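Consider the following assembly input.
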Amino acid sequence: MKKVLIAGVTGAMGQKAVSLVNSMDNFEVSAGLAPHLTAENKMDYQLGPAVKTYQHLDEIENGIADIWIDFTLPNAVYSDVKFAIDHGMKPIVGTTGLTDDQQAELVQLSREKHVGGLIAPNFGMSAVLLMKFAQEAAKYFPDVEIIEMHHGDKKDAPSGTALSTAKMIDQVRKPHETNPEETESLAGARGGDYHGIKIHAVRLPGYIAHEQVLFGGDGEALTIRQDSFDRQSFMNGVKVALKKVDQLSELVIGLENIL
Amino acid sequence: MKKVLIAGVTGAMGQKAVSLVNSMDNFEVSAGLAPHLTAENKMDYQLGPAVKTYQHLDEIENGIADIWIDFTLPNAVYSDVKFAIDHGMKPIVGTTGLTDDQQAELVQLSREKHVGGLIAPNFGMSAVLLMKFAQEAAKYFPDVEIIEMHHGDKKDAPSGTALSTAKMIDQVRKPHETNPEETESLAGARGGDYHGIKIHAVRLPGYIAHEQVLFGGDGEALTIRQDSFDRQSFMNGVKVALKKVDQLSELVIGLENIL
Amino acid sequence: MKKVLIAGVTGAMGQKAVSLVNSMDNFEVSAGLAPHLTAENKMDYQLGPAVKTYQHLDEIENGIADIWIDFTLPNAVYSDVKFAIDHGMKPIVGTTGLTDDQQAELVQLSREKHVGGLIAPNFGMSAVLLMKFAQEAAKYFPDVEIIEMHHGDKKDAPSGTALSTAKMIDQVRKPHETNPEETESLAGARGGDYHGIKIHAVRLPGYIAHEQVLFGGDGEALTIRQDSFDRQSFMNGVKVALKKVDQLSELVIGLENIL
Amino acid sequence: MKKVLIAGVTGAMGQKAVSLVNSMDNFEVSAGLAPHLTAENKMDYQLGPAVKTYQHLDEIENGIADIWIDFTLPNAVYSDVKFAIDHGMKPIVGTTGLTDDQQAELVQLSREKHVGGLIAPNFGMSAVLLMKFAQEAAKYFPDVEIIEMHHGDKKDAPSGTALSTAKMIDQVRKPHETNPEETESLAGARGGDYHGIKIHAVRLPGYIAHEQVLFGGDGEALTIRQDSFDRQSFMNGVKVALKKVDQLSELVIGLENIL
């Protein structure tokens, strides 16, 4: 039985993580960490009698968990992950906010301590598989465009996932030229351009978070699409990470790199 | 039996029109018009022994046809349609190139002569129905974006059909504001803007001519999509026009206006 | 200012209806009806000080409302709507469970009393527009198939909306024959058959409620798709009904019939 | 410069292969084989002065080609491929009709002779990538259904590609149960069933050859779609095979196995 500590256990994602771990054979929640978590209120957060509760890192006992799931806040995640590695707990981290330097330092630490783990900006399996497949398809179909669709309240365009997809495609795609004679009678009609990869962003109420990658070749087309209807989908990726983390010998960045 | 003269009968679209009329009950090709068409080569163009052949307007005999199908060239279409109306033949016109003034004049002439007919920039039924439905849906869903997808060789963006769709939507849509806080980290990501309606143009090899209109509302979405795989699709609209032209009392612009 | 009574006000749909009416100019909630609703707990249901509360039909005062919104239960809806019509309140009914005989009787009553209103099995605008457009497109594209996609827990197939769509298409479609030489190497691959219209039902977790109608013709295709992400979408249709109910002179069945 | 013999060079696919090879650097057509091909008519088939022409296998000279592209007929393919391997030419075979026993025998022969090559029932890159990605995704999303869409004249359902996709998914998918309480009010609505994987076949005029694989998980969906608009698409796969065949040490079955 693998023991799991959940940091940020009282938050929405932390609670989903509790439900996930409780539903899996061979895993159990052994401890929760959150600023206002107490032995008295822990049952409000689906935590059973045997689960330890902590409010601060320095209260955490040695050996309390094998795995550290982190859905906390940008200002807490660095100390959390460092603590976990230092104490031999394998971190599975969905919290954003680590700088590139912090990530590099934590990876280095994980190598020194021989502790595997995963930091993933996106735990949605459909988004991660889309990016992975798009990168592979781009080797054979250099002509590619991206359409992402989000709810009307999203302010920035394109989405981070769409941009990440373009970057992954750009790493493998042969040098590629768009039609030099192309003209726009409405500026922007051909979309945003990332190294020759066009990205189109749709914003409409009702929509949640969706992305399509469209490839075209002589006489054929290939389209990969993912739809995120609910943040519950992140737990699909956390589940995969829980099952694979034992095979990792250091901290890995990106769910796609453990698939 | 309705008699049909086909102008531009030796061209690709003219030939499709011959096949169409030959396949319909109650219609027959009575005459063909084309610069190099002769009694000797007419059988190369699916024209039977009884079909009259003309190279110039002034050769055409009175009463030779009830209906005039026109798939010619921009420089011929005005004289053709005028000739048809003057001689009581109902024009069904797929040739582009008429100016707004010429169209208005021909409509006026058709009223005076009591001759019905149809000028349609697009005879593809799926494109025409898409525009019609999009206009109707926009009354209930003011939040709408357009994505059109064409082969990589298409130079201009957005497509004429996408722009026509936006214009039709704009006629009925309530005043509408896009999210004022919206920002683009890649210029053009949010597409071209026609009176607040975003239009996105995708250009990829393999693709032919496709358009989607996406509507979003609280908790739901409606999408209308049309695919033109082949110009053969234009004959679907010509067929509808042939059946309806007798009910028209003047020259109508746009297939959607006779549906 | 139009006054609205909401029957079933404490339920999930009733509560959405309160939010809707509160957000609209020229409409106000004047009364709520629900078995456990009291003057004391009404503020828990977004009902202000001036809103009347009723637990039973016989408590309802004359003149308390112009419009009656009903999201109750199958066993209550008949008495509710009869009561509303008898007392001159225009019913807008989303509750299911009326028999065909009961519907016919209520329509007859509405004519006698000159009270307009609407009973709609589906208030989702995207679903209703899809059905309306599908019926219209089928006049020009007799070749049509339906694919509906729902969450994995849905037990019956095809969905009621898909079947309704097929029925509406069947009313207008010309007699039509499927390919008589067609064979299935896996039974059911060609879907269910409603009067020659094939219906395919997909059941997958993650999906919510989605329907596509696919039309094909020579060289082209037309697809109409709707996605219901959330029951909130029903309020889009209720809003349309609230604005149009004054123009109705009798009880109408189906939101599509007032668009 | 790699020399290529094209068997079936006068057929539609053979001719596309000529165009492809002519367009590639480092490859040239050195010979053509076809029953009625002669030195006199070879220019009608895009074959230049230096290209050898053969009507029968026994005329073919040693060393005339490094690679043998085969788009012939079911009754010719076995002898063709055997001949190619025996004479040290690497076969790239798009002709169907080999029995399982013949395939196994040819693979065995290729090992003995140390001749690499490829036999592919489908050279469409989009179809092959769809199958490959679908198999990979099924490891993470065991809930999956397939929809294939073809022109109305296709007699059998489901398509061979859809069935192949299901078989590839079935190889990796964990044991999986469909909802046992599921019922069909129209028989066939839930599609054909291949080991618990539902397959739906749409047949409509206008459509060409399209396939979608739909995956669903908690709160998310992943869809992979391919469209074959034209058999020209097969040349995308032949091109990949031409570039990779030198790295193969035996005859491989299936384009996906060399990607």
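Residues 100-113 of chain C form the longest helix (14 residues). Ask yourself how this observation constrains the way the partners meet.
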